[in-house]
Amino acid sequence: MSPSNPPTAPRLEPPGAGVPVIERLVGGLVVSLRRRFGSAASIAARFEAERRAISLLCQGQDDEALGDRVLIPRLRGLEDSSRYWSVWMTLDHLRIVNEAITGAVRELMAGRVPPGVASTAAVKPREGVGAEVAVAYESSCAGLVSLFMGGRSLRTTCRYAHPWFGPLDGSGWCVLSAMHMGIHRRQIERILGERLRGGD
């Protein structure tokens, strides 16, 4: 059994445990700067670049490669509980988060604070998810890009709190969505890389 595919699930921190304080502080600063100096077009371009990179990583991979759960080292911005996922699980997580951000930003643009509290523990993927997630994931990406480029201002008066970065307006959440895609693009790179190394 490869060390990257242990026979039993590894012991990880519980979902929602968060990331180190320094990562939260740096991440919050990056969100703030990109929100302040960016535009809907620049957010969309960054998001689409990560979307294309994820697509290229997945191209040519068979269902076994995309479905294997692989234990990877923790990446910056990634909770410990998220280190033992498959690529399909990662896409399912991105789908869940993209849909949640789209819904939240639409509420903020309508002058309403979304109900409930945003939680990283509530957006973990299904363990048995497979290839069926691909279409839903792409749809979630298209929905966000449509929101970015819809012509309405993303800089809303209302704000909705992120559990790590505090209250964000619509633009802040959209910036975060592109950053989030980048974190999990790196995760997919590492999952596929660790899997190949484990097979040597």
Q: Which SSEs are present, and which pair or pack?
A:
Blueprint: H1 21-37, H2 40-58, H3 63-67, E1 70-71, E2 84-85, H4 87-109, H5 133-148, E3 160-162, E4 166-168, H6 170-198
Antiparallel strand pairs: 1-2, 3-4
Helix pairs in contact: 1-6, 2-5, 2-6, 4-5, 4-6
Helix share, percent:
40-55%
Arithmetic mean of pLDDT: 93
Described by strand count, sense and barrel closure, the largest sheet is: 2 strands, antiparallel
Task: Name the overall outline.
Answer: globular
The radius of gyration over CA amounts to 17 Å
Strand content: 5-15%
Spans with pLDDT under 50 lasting ≥5 residues? Answer: 1-6
Number of strands: 4
The ordered string of helix (H) and strand (E) elements is: HHHEEHHEEH
Structural class: mainly alpha
Give the strand line-up of the largest sheet: 1-2
Describe the protein in words.
With about 200 residues, this protein is mainly alpha-helical. The protein contains six helices and four strands; from the N terminus they run αααββααββα. It has a two-stranded antiparallel ribbon with strand order 1-2. Strand 3 (about 160) and strand 4 form a beta hairpin. Helix 1 crosses helix 6 (about 170-200) and helix 4 (about 85-110) runs parallel beside helix 5 (about 135-150). It starts with 20 loop residues before the first helix and ends with a helix. Residues about 1-5 have low confidence and may be disordered.
